[in-house]
Amino acid sequence: MAAESDPAFLGMAVQAGLVVASGVSLLAAYRVIRGPTVPDRVVGLDVIATNVVAIAVLYAIATTHGFFVDVALVLAIIGFLSTIAVARYVTEGDIIEP
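The structure corresponding to this sequence follows.
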């Protein structure tokens, strides 16, 4: 069980996670650009927001700067609220009921 405490293994795992999250973000960007429907684009943007949060956390682990975890939490909250707002706009036509 040397892999559990090996810092080199952790570094490689973080780097692999960064590469995978970046690749998935690029694939989601393709879905945002190509569509074909608005819900597809919304889901693509939500995936990108989630991956940006993952990238921020992985960067915090790689650099040992805890500030990026706070940034990731704020980005997660903003991403969640924006997804709810867009979904409500798509389904009902407005965000705030009069």
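The domain at 2-92 is CATH 1.10.287 (Helix Hairpins).
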